Structure formats: C-alpha cells, structure tokens
Amino acid sequence: MSLISLSNISKIYQMGKVAVPALDNISLTIEQGESVSIIGRSGSGKTTLLDIIGCLSLPTSGEYLLNGNAVSSFSEEALAKIRNQLIGFIFQTFHLLPRQTALMNVSLPLFYNDTPKSERMDRAREALRQVGLSDRENHMQSELSGGQQQRVAIARALVTHPKMILADEPTGNLDSKSGTEIIDLLLELNQSGSTLIIITHDAEVAKRAKRKVIIADGKIV
Ligand code: ADP
Ligand code: MG
C-alpha cells in the first residue's frame, strides 16, 4: 500500500462569484521512504498540492488515500492528529515563535500530543542535535542566522518522528550556501527513513531529489 495516493484531485478556490482553479485532475502516488521534488512556476498550484497532501485542506474533487485511508472521511480532530503525528511541515518563512528559545520552539508539537512532560525537553534536545544546533538551544530567532532558523524549524518538524516531511520552498529565503546545506540535511533525514516532499521553483534544488514531478497550470506535465 502506498503512503500517499492521489486520484484525480482538483481544487477550485471560490472567491465570491469567481472560481479560481488551482489543481486540475492530479493523480500521484508516493511510497514510504521516497524523496520527491515538486517543481513549477509561481502560481502553478504547488502550495495547494502540498496543503492537500499535508491534510491542511481538502480537494474540491478526487480521492486522497493516506496509508490506504480516505482523508475525506476523517473528522477535524483526526486530521489534527494526523498533522501532528504523521507530518512534519517546513515553510519558506520558518514560522518560529520569535520570543521563545530554539529549544522551546522545537518542543512545541510535543505539547499538542500525549508526550509526557518529562520527555519533551529531552526529545527537543535530541532533535536540535540531529540538525547540528546543540549549541544554540537558548537562542531566540533574532540571534540565529536564516539557515539556523530553518534548522530549528526542521528540528521542530522532526521532533514527533513524522512519517513524512513536507517542505514548501524551504530554501526560498536563504543564500545558496545555506540553502544547499538545508537540502543536504533534508536528504539525510530521508536516508534515515522519512518520506520527503520538497516544493521548489529552483531547478538545482529539484534535481537533488530521487524523483521530480513537474507541475504547470495545476496539472502534472
Ligand atoms: P504556487 O505555490 O505554485 O505558487 P499556489 O498553490 O499558491 O501556487 O496557487 C495556485 C493558484 O491558486 C494561483 O492562481 C493562486 O492565485 C490561487 N490560490 C492559492 N491560494 C488561494 C486561496 N486561498 N484563495 C484563492 N485563490 C488561491
Ligand atoms: Mg507556493
């Protein structure tokens, strides 16, 4: 059984009376442990697709099976649990809490699941160690470089031991050297078992994943 199976997925945003088509009949299967890049121009539907894969939004039509289960049949509560436990999200703009330390930011997802209090900080420390930031535990966002901020975000995505890591333009706000290091790190995590999906409009980034999916005008080409 595939981890992700999308069949004939379409998404139309309704803006008042105007229908904005974003995805047009997408079918895509991704197996546990794969590394996949999804590349396309701005506005081609990449973020919309990742939001659907990440159970952040539902398609207008089509079927999404996650581990063989129809996502459309899940309650809001079940979806929240899936997002917390199965999926690690990484965004272009990091989304860290600016007034919290790196360690607190990384531990946050563990407050929303049943992780015992005594384990949270140990798990957060371990995740920061995995991204090479053990010596920055007590730094605030403003005391970290862009690349380090993205590492903290990756540690936060990792701390729940997710089955898949979804990264939306993870190098978009980084210089090319930090960007390369972030992709190195994501590929390392993929080597140790996490399914990895990277959205990008950068051909150099895209070609580093094992498989490349090209999207244009909401369609796979
Ligand atoms: P990409 O990530 O490839 O830049 P998006 O998935 O963000 O593309 O957007 C695809 C299309 O859907 C674009 O035309 C965009 O304007 C539109 N769109 C995206 N999000 C929304 C939304 N929340 N409401 C209405 N239209 C949207
Ligand atoms: Mg986008």
Could you walk me through the main structural features you see in this protein, from its secondary elements to its overall organization?
The chain is of the alpha/beta class and 221 residues long. The chain has helices at 46-53, 76-86, 102-111, 117-130, 146-158, 176-191, 203-206, and strands at residues 4-15, 18-30, 35-39, 61-66, 69-70, 87-91, 164-168, 195-200, 211-216, 219-220. The strands form two sheets. A six-stranded mixed β-sheet has the order 6-7-8-3-9-10, sandwiched between helices. It has a four-stranded antiparallel β-sheet with strand order 2-1-4-5, with helices on one face. It is globular and about 50 Å long. The relative contact order is 0.21. Bound molecules: adenosine-5'-diphosphate and magnesium ion. Magnesium ion binds next to helix 1. Adenosine-5'-diphosphate binds next to strand 1, strand 2 and helix 1.
List key phrases describing it.
six-stranded mixed sheet; binds adenosine-5'-diphosphate; 28% strand; alpha/beta; globular; 7 helices; four-stranded antiparallel sheet; 10 strands; binds magnesium ion; 221 residues
